Amino acid sequence: MKMTKKTFGTFAGVFTPTTLTILGVIMYIRQPWVVGNAGVVGALSILLVSVAITFTTALSLSSITTNVRIGAGGAFSIISKSLGLEIGGAIGIPFYIAQALAVAMYVFGFREGLVSILPGLNALIADIVIFSLVMGIAFISTSFAFKIQYVILGIIILSLVSIYGALFVSELNYDFEWFGKYPGSIENNFSGTSYWVVFAVFFPAVTGVMAGANMSGDLTSPRKSIPKGTISAVILTTIIYASLIFVASLLATPDELASNYNLFIDKALFSPIVLAGLLGATLSSALGSFIGAPRIMLALAEKGILPKSRELAKISKKGEPVNSMLITAIIVFIGISLRDLNTIAPILTMFFMITYAMVNIVVLVEQSLSLPSYRPTLKVPMIVPAMGAFGSIAIMFVINVIVALTSLILIFIFYFYLVNLKLKSEVGDSRSGLFTALAEWATKKSSNLSPQKEVRSWRPDLLIPMTMPKDIRSSYKLIHSIINPNGSIKILSLLNENPEEQKNIEQFLSNASKKYKESGISVSYAFVENRELNTTINISMQSLNAAFFKPNVIFVSIDTGNVNLQFYDKLIADVKKNNFGMIIYIPFSTASLAIEKNINLWLTDIPTNWKETFNIGNNDLSTLLALLICNNWKGEIDALIVDDNPGSKFTASDIEDLHTMVRFPKKTHISVKQGNLLENVKKYRNADVNVFSVDDHMMTSDMIQIVNESRISGIFCVDSNLENVLV
Q1: SS3 60
Q2: Which of 7-16, 128-137, 506-515 has the highest mean pLDDT?
Q3: Contacts of 338 (CB under 8 A, 6+ apart)
Q4: What is the pLDDT of residues 583-640, one digit of tens each?
Q5: Which end of the chain is less crowded, N or C, counting CB atoms within 10 A of the terminal residue's CB?
Q6: What residues form DSSP beta bridges with 476?
Q7: Longest alpha-carbon distance in the chain
Q8: Could you please report the per-residue DSSP string of 425-466?
């Protein structure tokens, strides 16, 4: 019989683990020291700055969870659903490691408390026994672990009562030191310290806001429980910490506070219960982290991010991620074997801070996009996630610049590793919306700066009309050579009346698009229900003229064995009328593009005043095309200027200026040829392709004649007047 997975409500699943994680060891043995160094005002400011960061993160976390169906993994789920699996995983992996190794640190803290009672205790054996206890509780069941946490919560409440009770049995110090002198600590022989050092010591006390979110996959209603449980826990613990600042100031002088870490224990109404609270706090934190870490690993494995993900994603009949728990146990044992986590503890803190920053950034991104899908039931002003993100990153560098940079580098390493995995998300994320918003912003800016597109921003964006797959299949390599790396393709196909043929066309276009996209090229296609292709293309060009991101060049390939001359002549006229460019590829039947090395560029009708006007006539598109193909072929260009006017003279100086102004590759050879274009083309058969400009009198039949008589494939270009190779 399959057992139903037990889920938890707000109090058990979020409020209790969050509260217990925040009310930890620092509250018991470091808060008096903070007050002794910073004074009442300084300690309050440290608390308020710390809570400002974590509370804004809690609000951001709560806001985003009321908008999305958060899955397992807490912060990982939130980040990956908004910014993609790569970024989510890059944050989730180190966050998991930090959560796992934090268990070892809490075990060390528990052992230190025991040593104060039993000085002769063997530290290593104690650590192993303590963690075995934590692991045993967690493996019995999460429900049992939460019941243990109720007991610990009760002990902590009694310990706080005992600390507050000390006010009624101790001689009180009313001479508060409002602004501290920062004497330092026992470890540095009270040689002094600073505000930010004290801040760095205290800040980890409040970094427990993710404890409830880590259990997101085990909550009955995470959308309701995470906001309520997290925010109420942060508010309650903040009140407790603030009150303890005044309690500490009343119980002892600043010197006593700075020199006695056990002041709360020594002064308490009943010291043993405070010591039990200290032990309970570290035990509950260890237990909470050991329960939460495997669930982060489970979420990562379910998305295929980790090696052996299928095995790690398995759960028991009770719904426990047993395999992930075993791996986490191994990591904790490795941490315990290090014996001193002080060297890596700062990096763990940084991983927590980066996670908090990213949760805030997610909310900033979602709010900035203003998409209809972003409708959180708990709305927060944009200043809240902005403060949380900025504060988290700033605190990282305040604590330790080198460690902060090291942590960020590790995040980038994880990110690039995951990018190479080519992860597939089943539900998608908000990145497309983000880039769309950026594109819209850039479009508005560009339109305001220049209503007409600048010639400097020209790139080949092809519109390819297609009736049959062979129209593109035969030209695939040439198309790629034209548009790589920054061009784009839009394919316009007529619907085929034959369902089977239509299905084949759709399959071909899907495969062709995939192949182009693998090269990083933008490609899309659409079907139009119209039998007359000329009309379809003409209407498409007219419609697309209203768009900002529109194709600028029509690309067609002509099969000389079966050609409709009238269709192409009319298409050229329509292209000119709509201010589009046009590329007509006519492969020679037996030669195609040969070895793709040498390009002959034929330049005709260059105006005599071209240098003054920066205008080389109808040769811009053909020259730009030759340069693009040359770059992708790693080939060479021979530029041949056909000058059939005996009265004009293209001098050596003109040739040098043309080479400089066009910025031809160094190996480009430029020469002037007298006479008729066709006769000159027939003389030069050493190229793999000829590139021509189409003048006003050239017809499709003339192009085919040039290709057949030269026996070299030809590319014929019609300028749109929106290109200029001299800019």
Answers
A1: helix
A2: 128-137
A3: 104, 344
A4: 999 988 755 676 788 999 999 989 888 988 889 999 999 999 999 999 999 999 999 9
A5: N
A6: none
A7: 116
A8: -SS--SHHHHHHHHHHHHHHHHHHH-SSPPGGG---EEEEEE
Residue 326 identity (one-letter amino acid) = L
Token pair in block for residue 59? 């609000």
Give the residue carrying structure tokens 């509250």. Answer: 27
Average pLDDT over residues 671-690: 89
Q: What is the pLDDT of residues 347-378, one digit of tens each?
A: 777 888 898 898 898 888 888 766 666 778 88
Beta bridge partner(s), residue 598: 636
Tell me the whole-structure pTM to 2 decimals.
Answer: 0.69
pLDDT at 689 over 90: yes
Distance CA 404, CA 420 (A): 25
Identify the DSSP state of 674. E
Q: Which residue in 222, 218, 242 sits closest to 55, CA to CA?
A: 242
Tell me how far the alpha carbon of residue 426 is from its chain's centroid.
17
List Cβ neighbours of 58 (8 Å cut-off, separation of 6 or more).
209, 230, 231, 234
- Three-state secondary-structure class, residue 378: coil
| Burial environment of residue 526 by CB neighbours within 10 A (0 to 12, 13 to 18, 19 or more) | exposed
Strand arrangement of the beta sheet that strand 522-528 belongs to: 522-528, 488-494, 461-466, 553-557, 581-586, 714-718, 689-693, 598-604, 636-643, 669-674
pLDDT digits (tens, 9 = 90+) for 439-471: 666 666 666 665 556 677 788 989 988 877 777
Q: What are phi and psi of 426, to 5 degrees?
A: -75, -25
Distance CA 196, CA 201 (A): 9
d(CA 179, CA 40): 6
pLDDT at 669 over 60: yes
Per residue, the 3-state secondary structure of 492-542, as one string, reads: EEECCCCHHHHHHHHHHHHHHHHHHHHCCCEEEEEEECCCCHHHHHHHHHH
Tokens, residue 141:
């069941």
At residue 590, the 3 state secondary structure works out as coil
Q: Please state, for a pLDDT cut of 70, what percent of the chain lies above it.
A: 90
CA distance 325 to 327: 6
Q: Give the integer Cα–Cα distance in Å for 190 and 179.
A: 17
Q: What is the C-alpha to C-alpha distance for residues 401 and 407, in angstroms, rounded to an integer?
A: 10
Neighbours of 87 (CB within 10 A): 22
Which domains, ranges and CATH numbers included, belong to the chain?
10-371+382-421 (1.20.1740.10), 455-718 (3.40.50.12370)
Task: Check whether 568 has a pLDDT greater than 60.
Answer: yes
CB-based contact 635:597 (threshold 8 Å):
yes
Q: Span 216-222, mean pLDDT?
A: 76
* Six token digits for residue 455: 């010639």
